[in-house]
Amino acid sequence: MLHIETLDDMLNSHMQAFADDRDMQYVPLLIGDREVIDKAAAAVTPKVAERYNAKHRDEDGFIPYEALP
User: Fold this and answer.
1) What is the pTM of this model?
2) What is the pLDDT of residue 58?
3) How far apart are CA 20 and CA 47, in angstroms?
4) CA-to-CA distance for 43 and 13, rounded, in angstroms?
């Protein structure tokens, strides 16, 4: 199935899904220079780590997000 949407629509829907802690079918690429990419990663990484750790904490062999390679 072909899915076409504007970059603005895609990013807005994914930002809302992230805010709502909903699963996404695919992960958008972020386009920008290194500074933009690093700022975006720094903005979302704490929440990604928190969600990952909460989801996997009770699993055998759990490795905290911060310790993943």
Assistant:
1) 0.71
2) 97
3) 12
4) 17
